[in-house]
Specification:
By secondary structure, this protein is an alpha/beta fold. The protein is built from 13 helices and 15 strands. The two termini are 39 Å apart. Bound molecules: 2-succinylbenzoate and magnesium ion. Magnesium ion binds at residues 206, 208, 231-232, 256, 278, 307. 2-succinylbenzoate is lined by residues 70, 152, 206, 208, 256, 307-310, 333, 335.
């Protein structure tokens, strides 16, 4: 692989033989609890992954959580998949292109968040080694370096509270509001919010699978509110019922949980199950698959936008780089650091530009690194895996932590 560096010079791609993988389990308190139809998060916890080779580091984070509520993956399952299935496939491997990681991991079923974190760290490593920003390797658009962003608002204690929170975000410049809903906390708060902010503000709802097809009448009541879209109203693994619902609603249906691959995207679009797709790199197994989901959607004229999982600055940077691809045509959930945290892992934090955009970090790779002092403060667990040729495969490894 040969690519042009920022200085226009040809740089020879490097071969990556991973020497070590560092795992840091970090816990960052959230400024305010984030409530969805499946649970409430008070602390953002994640595995930060660092891949090391040739004196260069690559960073990414996992989007799994403590419990399997959003998806079946958890911190423990991610750790298990790394140790027993994915890292053994990297040992002794000489990688020349980050695109090849997807194929190396392909025999392993599911475990997409586990695959994604490793793959994303490897993409960061390759772009850093070549001295180019990640978006260049991903094929992003040089003209799209300010990413329009919205904000995802958790379920609030009352419509008044929802309106107050929403008004605050709008005053900061966020370009659209996404409101979490569940049966009973849906039509009324959204009606009140629409009345409060007026007809111009883009509003959407995210149900995180809280409804059934039999709730169609309740969901139809939302049609009067001119929502941009409703995200994942039905089961997390469904596209068939969504295709029925989508025909019954005027509000466009967006899928999140149900799209785990480009094949899922193709099938969902062919069935008419969605008019929009929320792309989360972690949910689909990495940058390579995210690109393919993006491309399938683009070939059908279906816009995508970048979702979020309350990431620290490391995952946020990856999300901004992927958002430079041309079919990311709607504001993403990649909000500023101060929407989530008192202090981010990276410095400077991500700040909202006055025009409601976030700037893609400049510089090699994802363009940000965890601040060592903060990492030391926020981490509760640290491991270093040296990838000797004897890395063990199979079985439950000795000393697997069961709590992090
Ligand atoms: O469904 O998009 C979701 C957060 C955690 C789990 C699932 C979701 C979300 C969000 C937050 O909506 C988006 C963000 O990172 O701001
Ligand atoms: Mg969602």
């Amino acid at each position: 692989m040969v690519s042009l560096g920022e200085d226009g010079q040809r740089k020879r791609a490097r071969v990556m033989k991973i020497e070590a993988i560092f795992l840091d389990f970090v816990q960052l308190p959230l400024k305010s609890p984030f409530q969805t139809s499946f649970g409430t998060e008070r602390v953002k916890s994640t595995w930060l992954v660092t891949v090391v080779a040739d004196g260069v580091r690559g960073y990414a984070e996992s989007v799994a959580d403590v419990e399997p509520l959003y998806s079946e993956e958890t911190h423990a399952s991610v750790y298990f998949a790394w140790k027993n299935a994915l890292v053994p496939r990297l040992v002794n491997e000489s990688l020349t292109d980050p695109k090849d990681v997807d194929a190396l991991f392909a025999p392993i079923r599911g475990n997409r968040m586990a695959k994604a974190a490793l793959e994303m760290a490897i993409w960061d490593w390759f772009s850093r080694s070549q001295g180019v920003p990640l978006w260049r390797l991903l094929g992003g658009d040089p003209a799209r370096q300010r990413i329009p962003v919205g904000v995802s608002i958790g379920i609030q204690s009352s419509p008044e509270q929802l309106i107050a929170v929403a008004m605050d975000y709008l005053s900061q410049g966020y370009r659209r509001l996404k409101v979490k809903i569940q049966p009973g906390t849906d039509v009324e708060p959204l009606e009140r919010l629409r009345a409060a902010v007026g007809s111009e503000v883009p509003i959407m709802a995210d149900a995180n699978s809280a409804y059934r097809l039999s709730d169609v009448d309740r969901l139809k009541a939302l049609d009067a509110l001119n929502l941009m879209m409703i995200e994942q109203p039905l089961a997390e693994d469904d596209i068939v019922d969504h295709s029925v619902l989508a025909r019954a609603l005027k509000t466009p249906v967006c899928l999140d949980e149900a799209i785990r691959s480009s094949d899922d995207a193709r099938k969902a679009i062919q069935l008419g199950a969605c008019a929009v797709i929320n792309v989360k790199v972690g949910r689909v197994g990495g940058h390579q698959m995210a690109r393919q989901v993006h491309d399938v959607a683009a070939s059908h004229g279906v816009p995508v936008w970048c979702g979020g999982m309350l990431e620290t600055g490391v995952g946020r940077a990856h999300n901004l780089h992927v958002s430079t691809l041309p079919n990311f045509r709607l504001p993403g959930d990649t909000s500023a650091s101060d929407r989530y945290f008192f202090e981010d892992l990276v410095d400077p934090p991500f700040r909202l530009n006055p025009d409601g955009t976030l700037s893609v970090p400049e510089g090699p790779g994802i363009g940000v690194e965890p601040v060592p002092e903060r990492l030391a403060r926020f981490r509760t667990h640290h491991e270093e895996w040296r990838l000797t040729p004897h890395w063990r495969q199979g079985g439950i490894p000795h000393g697997t932590p069961t709590r992090f």
